[in-house]
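USER: Note each token:
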Amino acid sequence: MSDNQKPDTYILFELAETNYAVNSQDVQQLEMVDEFTPVPNAPDFVEGVVFLRGQVIPVINLRARFRFEKRPFDQRTRLVVIRDTERVVGFIVDTAREFVTIPAEAIQLPPESVAGMSGRYLDGIATLGNRMILLLNVAEVLKAAEEIELEEIEIEKEGVVS
């Protein structure tokens, strides 16, 4: 949620029939899902790495990351390339279909009942018309316990590029 109460723009995506959003400032690009290079001993939620526009990018399947059932990729599946302060990572989502402005007054903090482990991934919950949208906290998704494993993949991919 913005401190200055001015509306922020978001990229909306769907995952397991739920609407999520990431701040558009965190998104580097959207891509169709293509081939990945598997990385040995990676956690289940890491599909591998992909080479995009001169960069080797680790790819995280958000379905697996959030412990939803995996499903085969199709024409609607997208790779949302996220730019964090320290890295670039791709999130596989079911579909990414909209770019919207969400006014600050439409965003509420997550209820305390989800504020524990799963709620830490959320910046807030927005309502637009009759839709509920979960605002993803990209930094928290990447900072979770498996971050150490992602760092190991970063080290391994440096060996692949060299």
